[in-house]
Structures are given as structure tokens and as C-alpha cells.
TrEMBL record:
Belongs to the D-isomer specific 2-hydroxyacid dehydrogenase family. SUPFAM superfamilies: ACT-like, Formate/glycerate dehydrogenase catalytic domain-like, NAD(P)-binding Rossmann-fold domains. It catalyses: (R)-2-hydroxyglutarate + NAD(+) = 2-oxoglutarate + NADH + H(+); (2R)-3-phosphoglycerate + NAD(+) = 3-phosphooxypyruvate + NADH + H(+). Residues 318-387 form the ACT domain. Its EC number is 1.1.1.399, 1.1.1.95. Keywords: NAD, Oxidoreductase. InterPro entries: ACT-like_dom_sf, ACT_dom, D-isomer_2_OHA_DH_cat_dom, D-isomer_DH_CS1, D-isomer_DH_NAD-bd, NAD(P)-bd_dom_sf. One of its GO terms (molecular function) is phosphoglycerate dehydrogenase activity. It comes from the Bacteria. This is D-3-phosphoglycerate dehydrogenase. Pathway: Amino-acid biosynthesis; L-serine biosynthesis; L-serine from 3-phospho-D-glycerate: step 1/3. Catalyzes the reversible oxidation of 3-phospho-D-glycerate to 3-phosphonooxypyruvate, the first step of the phosphorylated L-serine biosynthesis pathway. Also catalyzes the reversible oxidation of 2-hydroxyglutarate to 2-oxoglutarate.
């Protein structure tokens, strides 16, 4: 019986994919797999038996990836599964920032008992007028699952779109509209764009990527949208620039004491992926990843180990070995198995940075003492007997 624990509510359509061989447990200590959305895992004690963590979403800055790797815990995310939900909210953000929709709604509510509200509204509506997004320049920083959707949709809204991503994947590049102008110096976006939207992961290299210098380059009419992570932006500098009228609006999906209530800030409570469709997509993908890993040893969409897949096991046994990406590891494994008289039928070994994964199909059951020898090999993080 495999045991899993949910650190956040996970959509039922995903959890329903777990077969009768799976049991949900209330205590993470008992879990072999954990499903999580935004819950912070950095200070959590990770149980010895934990084999996999699936982030039902894209950002993994809430998970200690290296600590997990060192403990032989494979962390997955669900790339692209919530991208459309975020894309749609980015457009809502652009519209909210361009026209005083919130002010207009608040005015209507405040005047709900006025019998002449229709007539008064016609006089008052000039106070809530705004500008259109068609014909304006949009800069998209980060052209991954979300950035590409935003950029492409914006071209259909009549915007002139600039795209910046020095690390763009081949598949994202294929998906990007030819109308999007390729920008190689992000400063061109800061200087020229009316709307600037950021869609990069939070990493040490991207922290405060939009800093005071970048903000100083922007037009006084610029609108900055942040549906990625608050720490990507120097928000103190942003709030100061807004107060001084140096830029127009900052739309953020990450409430904190710096931005909520500050002049020119429009803040939503991390709603980007909070749609039925995104929650279902993420849950389905996360559960499939966990099942494929626990049942077949396959790693697909990991963020701390390499992807490595050999389909379903058709031989007598299969073992998965999470190990350091160091020379000589494979020869240790083959020697230990060979000395035990175990023939290798098939094998894959993939690496990613400091870590690697070997998946080995064998012609017989691998006994406990052989597994123990593999586990005791220097550089081995965890050995799993899949079958
Ligand atoms: N508000 C919300 O509810 C949600 C927020 N997010 C956030 O959005 C981020 C992006 O999500 P996806 O598009 O799905 O991720 P993704 O991994 O598909 O795309 C990220 C892109 O950023 C690019 N990138 C990395 N460093 C860069 C840099 N220095 N400059 C320019 N581009 C850079 C990468 O090459 C990649 O193409 C997530 O990491 C997460 O933090 C994601 C989903 C929901
Ligand atoms: O699960 C959520 O609502 C958060 C989504 C998110 O921020 C992400 O996928 O990176």
C-alpha cells in the first residue's frame, strides 16, 4: 500500500486517479508521497520514507530542492498545467490597471440606494475613464508556458509584443507567434513598453530582477504586472516610484505589507491558478507523475533529478538508484549486481547537474542484501526496489 499526504487541498479529480493500492494519510511522517501547492516546505522535517513530492503547479520556490535531492526525494512539478488560468488573469490585470473598473464598481455599490443612479452614473463615469490596450506595447519577460500564452494572446488584442527570454526552450520558441518581437536586451522592454509582465521562476539569479534601476528606465505611464512571485521585483522601489508618479500602476498577485494599500498597487490574493480547470489539470498531472514514479520508477517532469523513463517493467525486477553524478557509479552498480549473479536486461542512466538516476531492469528478484550493498555505495542517495 502506497501512502500519500496532501499539504494543500488537491482537486478530487486528481486524487481519484489513485487506485485502491493508495491510502491518504493525515500525518506527513507516514507518507511515501506528498502533494503540495503553495505550502512552505523549507522548515518541514522530511520523513525517511518520503520518496516523492509533487507540486501541483509551476513554481517550486516553496520546496527545498537540494535538501530533497540529498535525501533521495524526487520533486516534480506540473509544467503548463495552470498556464491558461494565469494568462487570463494577466489580461484582467491589464484591464484593471488601464481603466478604473474597481473604482467604478465601488461607486455603483456606494450609490445602490440612489433611485436616479442611472442618470448620476452618466455624469460620474468620466471619473473612471481609462485607456485601451490595443495599439500599446507589451513586454513579456520569460517566455515559458505562461509567457508564450500571454504574448500570443496579446498579439490578438492588437498589442505590439516584445518578448525576452535568453533561455527559451525549443518548444516554447516553436509556440511563439511570429508577430512577437525578439528582444535580446531587457532594457529595451523597460524603456519602451507601456505594459511589462514578468513570467520567470524565482531563483537566486532572478531575485529582484526588476530593481530600482529597471524601474527608473520605465515610462511614467508604464504598468508592471507581476503574476510570477513578489520577490522578483524590488517592491520598495516600486512603491516609491508609484508614489512619486514615476510609473503608473503595479499589478501583483502576491499580497504583502509593502504593496497592499500602497498608491498605484492593485493586488490579488495569489489567484492566478485558482480556476477549476487549472486545479484539475495540475492535480491530474501531479498524481500521474507520482504513480509513474512509485509504480514504474519513471521520472517525468522532475525539478531536482533528471527525467528518465523506461515504460512499464516487463522483466522480473526493476530497481531505481538515485545517486550523485560522479564518475564510476555505474560500474559499482553493475559489479554488485554481477557478483550476485543478477543479469541486467535493460538500463537507463541520466544526469542533471549534481544528481543522476539509474533505472535497471533485471532478470530476477533483487534480494535485500544486494539492495543494501547498492545503498551503501558512496554517492548513492537512495535505492528503490520498484518490482
Ligand atoms: N500566480 C500564480 O498563481 C502562478 C504563478 N506562477 C509563477 O510563474 C512562473 C512562470 O511559470 P511558467 O511560465 O509556467 O514557467 P516556465 O518554466 O514554463 O517558464 C519560465 C521561463 O522563464 C525563463 N527564464 C528563466 N530565467 C530568466 C531570466 N533571467 N530572464 C528571462 N527569462 C527567464 C525560462 O527560460 C522559461 O522559459 C512560475 O515559476 C511561478 O513562479 C506560475 C503559475 C501560477
Ligand atoms: O497552487 C497555486 O494556487 C499556486 C500556483 C502557483 O503559484 C504556481 O503554480 O507557481
Amino acid at each position: 500500500m502506497h501512502k500519500y499526504h496532501c499539504l494543500n487541498p488537491i482537486a478530487a479529480v486528481g486524487l481519484d486517479l489513485f487506485s485502491d493500492d493508495y491510502q491518504k494519510v493525515e500525518d506527513i511522517k507516514d507518507a511515501e508521497a506528498v502533494l503540495v501547492r503553495s505550502a512552505a516546505m523549507h522548515d518541514l522535517e522530511l520523513p525517511e520514507g518520503l520518496a516523492a513530492v509533487a507540486r501541483a503547479g509551476a513554481g517550486v520556490n516553496n520546496i527545498p530542492l537540494d535538501k530533497c535531492a540529498e535525501k533521495g526525494i524526487v520533486v516534480f512539478n506540473t509544467p503548463g498545467a495552470n498556464a491558461n488560468g494565469v494568462k487570463e488573469l494577466v489580461f484582467a490585470g491589464m484591464l484593471y490597471a488601464s481603466r478604473d473598473i474597481v473604482g467604478g464598481i465601488d461607486w455603483c455599490l456606494a450609490n445602490q440606494n440612489d433611485e436616479n443612479i442611472a442618470k448620476t452614473a452618466e455624469k460620474q463615469k468620466k471619473n473612471f475613464a481609462g485607456t485601451e490596450i490595443s495599439g500599446k506595447k507589451l513586454g513579456v519577460i520569460g517566455l515559458g508556458a505562461i509567457g508564450v500564452l500571454v504574448a500570443n494572446a496579446a498579439t490578438h488584442m492588437g498589442m505590439e509584443v516584445y518578448g525576452y527570454d535568453p533561455y527559451i526552450s525549443v518548444s516554447a520558441a516553436w509556440s511563439l507567434s511570429r508577430s512577437v518581437k525578439h528582444i535580446s536586451n531587457v532594457e529595451d522592454i523597460y524603456r519602451e513598453c507601456d505594459y511589462i509582465t514578468i513570467h520567470v521562476p524565482l531563483l537566486d539569479s532572478t531575485r529582484k530582477m526588476i530593481g530600482a534601476d529597471a524601474i527608473a528606465m520605465m515610462k511614467p505611464t508604464a504598468i508592471v504586472l507581476n503574476f510570477a512571485r513578489d520577490l522578483l521585483v524590488d517592491e520598495e522601489a516600486m512603491v516609491d516610484a508609484l508614489a512619486a508618479g514615476k510609473i503608473k500602476k503595479y499589478v501583483s498577485d502576491f499580497p504583502n505589507t509593502t504593496t497592499v494599500g500602497a498608491k498605484g498597487c492593485i493586488v490579488t490574493p495569489h489567484l492566478g491558478a485558482s480556476t477549476a480547470e487549472s486545479e484539475d489539470n495540475c492535480a491530474l498531472m501531479a498524481v500521474r507523475e507520482i504513480r509513474d514514479y512509485l509504480e514504474n520508477g519513471n521520472i517525468v517532469h522532475s525539478v531536482n533529478f533528471p527525467d528518465c523513463s523506461m515504460g512499464a517493467c516487463m522483466t522480473a525486477g526493476r530497481i531505481g538508484i538515485l545517486h550523485k553524478n560522479e564518475s564510476g557509479m555505474l560500474s559499482h552498480f553493475t559489479t554488485i549486481l554481477g557478483n550476485a549473479g543478477i543479469n541486467i536486461d535493460g538500463m537507463a542512466n541520466k544526469s542533471r547537474g549534481d544528481y543522476a538516476y539509474a533505472l535497471i531492469d533485471v532478470d530476477t528478484n533483487v534480494p535485500e542484501d544486494v539492495l543494501a550493498k547498492l545503498e551503501q555505495t558512496d554517492g548513492v542517495l537512495k535505492v528503490r526496489k520498484v518490482k
